[in-house]
Design a protein that fits this description.
By secondary structure, this protein is α+β, with helices and mostly antiparallel strands. It has helices spanning 15-42, 49-52, 55-79; strands at 110-118, 123-130, 135-142, 147-155, 160-170, 172-178, 183-190, 197-205, 208-212.
Amino acid sequence: MYNSNIPSDRELPSSQKLIKSTVFAGVVAVILLITTVLPAEYGIDPTGIGNAIGLKKMGEIKVSLKKEATAAVTENVQKTVPVQESTESKVGLTLASVKPVNPEPEKEIVMDTISVTLNPDQGTEVKVKMIKGETLTYKWSTDGGRANFDVHADSKKLKINYHNYEKGSQKIKEGSITAAFDGSHGWFWRNRTSKTLTIVLEVSGEFEGLERM
């Protein structure tokens, strides 16, 4: 009476069935890895299925953007030169040394344009000088395909090698930058197409010295 719910030997799966189920699950996992995960994450498509359904392109863009971020950090580290700051002694203020506070003049709005031409797989960087809190707006476009871009900043004085604002891959881009700190702020592009690419950048706002690095 107490053994009425115990399955018989016939009802239990055999060792052979368990092995077959395990092998089948492993085969399905490998197929998903090859046809879906590798194309979508790493741009590797041994079967061609990922390319057909658009996963390979997604993976190539992810890998390319990771490379751009690494390249931008490396370039900024190489350009950074340690700055020795002198220590000044603190001097007490007297009433005679206090100067009247004058209102700050309104900041001048600057407009500038620059054009850069990139060969296939070539990268370049354009930057401006900005003070913390200053703002600019920008628009850039290419004469061909998409360009990988990285909007970022750095500061030798503050020993900041890399500060990211935005990155991606586009043909036309509009946006704005509000300086997070005093330093150099700007754009890095790389031409991942097979043809020469010209990029035109238009900038308007509070900045100084638009130049190619």
